[in-house]
Amino acid sequence: MGNLYELATTLRLPQQPVRSPMFIDGAHYTGSTGEYVVRKSPGHGVAVTETLRASAQDLDAAVAAARRAFDDGRWSRISGEQRAAVLLKAAQRIRDDVETLAWLETLESGKPINQSRGEIMGAAGTWEYAAGLARVVHGDTHDTLGDDLFGLVVRQPVGVVGIVTPWNFPFFILSERLPFALAAGCTAVVKPAELTSSTTLRLAALLSEAGLPDGVVNVVTGLGSVVGQALAEHRDVDMVSFTGSTPVGRSVLTAAGGNMKKVGLELGGKNPQIVFADADLDDAADAIAFGICFNAGQCCVSGSRLVVHRSVEEELVARIKAVFEKVRVGDPLDAANHVGAIVEARQFDKICGYIEAGRRDGAQLVYGSTSTKEGERFFIQPTLFRNVKPDSALAQEEIFGPVLSVTPFDTTEQAIELANGAPYGLAASIWTRDVQQAFGSFRRVQAGRIWVNCTITGGPEMPIGGFKESGIGRETGRYGIEEYTELKSVHVQLGKRARWIA
Ligand code: NAD
Questions:
Q1: How far apart are CA 428 and CA 301, in angstroms?
Q2: Sign of CA dihedral 15, 16, 17, 20
Q3: Ligand 1 nearest-atom number relative to CA 176
Q4: How many CA atoms within 13 Å lie on the side-chain side of 370?
Q5: Cβ–Cβ contacts within 10 Å for residue 328, how many?
Q6: Which residues have any ligand 1 atom within 6 Å of their CB?
Q7: Is the pTM of this model over 0.70?
Q8: Domains assigned to the chain
Q9: Positions marked catalytic
Q10: C-alpha to C-alpha distance for 459 and 471, rounded to whole angstroms
């Protein structure tokens, strides 16, 4: 622990991979396979962590622990005040541990160290926000059912929740789900992505130190096709919250059908940046560059499609290019870099494939496309394509890399049509100084999150989630806790009940 802290604060690479066991029923758990996933830092090409590859039996042990912890009421039946106290302590433990958590996050994900620090501190704020909700969640009463009947609508925790998370924001995305499930009184089994499991495992230990009872949060690591699939199918799990790609989300939906478990899905996006002719182009250019470069474009809400009024297209493209020229891509442990590494070889090859396809399809390359694969380090410069056909792969598919496609429009009608013309509906940004245009557009754009004259910003107060193939349900905000509850209608007879047979 002390050693890790020293390595983290001096931003050095570990000499040996940091090995983390799983966490089940309040204790470290080494599992049944003895097999480890060795993770190499995509920014440095050296082995940095090792986590266990669990079996379906290990998952059964975790689900059994979560089931016991839920059913005996050690967490589900204590007061909101008591739950809030633990969640607040957890937030403080996260803040105290920011350096080590951020260092591990950067080593495994390749994201710049300052971004990791920001995400960990932001996540701590989300734990604090959710702590407040533990004392706010409530039901309704109905005093309008007549003199003899009174109605109560009670919100109860849904039960054991399986949470499956992706590699792009391992700690932050988990923190947009887990504290809300816990605030509601649920217990959980978490399955992080196999590339980035270490901060989730470390969080489980911090939660225990904060006073979370044993068995309330359990972490099982390993392959999605084994452990994630078994979690989605498990009959003792009452809900699954899955964040990841749309194809895997579809298979989770099918797997969850076995016991009709409740499902929350946060999936992919192909998010438009809609720029009208009257927009502040300087501001838009900076934000659009940020929106596609943030996390190297490996972000579900990356603004990857620029839909811009023809009269300002050339000017805006020139300004975005000027911002791209200043973006520093490189070693994620060097705090001067804006963009870190691409997470792994497969993702790197996929992005390069899209860049090639863009060229083949006749799109005009304005900037970028330079990629570096030195040994096992993967970097891609921000890339900008003009004249992208709306039905081409570049404009329709989630690339999950720093590749921006530009398509012009002439009328507002065309802009809305282009914005809504992809299968996803996760997020959108609208750039205009005209309040009528802004309101008129956000009403018609099909997306769960809209930014007007800004992008990728917000707080845990605001709900997140998608329209269309971007998912089902909402996380965070007061809706975030409601997702993890079931409603129960209670009818109370007052006075004497009228007899059926007198
Ligand atoms: P992925 O779908 O490959 O994996 C996500 C998680 O699912 C991982 O933990 C993985 O191990 C697990 N998994 C894999 N197969 C599974 C199966 N059959 N059953 C259950 N779980 C399984 O996604 P990824 O590559 O890790 O992440 C990138 C994707 O996630 C992108 O499409 C991105 O848009 C999406 N994403 C969405 C949001 C959002 O909030 N909408 C946020 C972040 C990422």
A1: 8
A2: negative
A3: 40
A4: 8
A5: 11
A6: 164-168, 173, 191, 193-194, 224-225, 228-229, 232, 243-245, 248, 251-252, 266-269, 300, 398, 400, 426, 466, 471
A7: yes
A8: 55-267+470-488 (3.40.605.10), 272-452 (3.40.309.10)
A9: 266, 300
A10: 20
What is the chain's pLDDT, residue by residue, as a tens digit (502 residues)? 458 999 999 999 999 999 999 999 999 999 889 999 999 999 999 999 999 999 999 999 999 999 999 999 999 999 999 999 999 999 999 999 999 999 999 999 999 999 999 999 999 999 999 999 999 999 999 999 999 999 999 999 999 999 999 999 999 999 999 999 999 999 999 999 999 999 999 999 999 999 999 999 999 999 999 999 999 999 999 999 999 999 999 999 999 999 999 999 999 999 999 999 999 999 999 999 999 999 999 999 999 999 999 999 999 999 999 999 999 999 999 999 999 999 999 999 999 999 999 999 999 999 997 877 778 999 999 999 999 999 999 999 999 999 999 999 999 999 999 999 999 999 999 999 999 999 999 999 999 999 999 999 999 999 999 999 999 999 999 999 999 999 999 999 998 898 999 8
166 Cα–ligand 1 center, Å: 4
- Are the C-beta atoms of residues 290 and 456 closer than 8 Å to each other? yes
Question: Is the alpha carbon torsion for 335, 338, 342, 348 positive or negative?
Answer: negative
Would you give the end-to-end CA distance of the chain in angstroms? 75
Q: Which residues does residue 37 pair with via DSSP β-bridges, in sequence order?
A: 51
The conformational region for residue 190 under phi > 0 = left, psi -120 to 50 = alpha, else beta, is beta
Handedness of CA 242, 246, 252, 253 (dihedral sign): positive
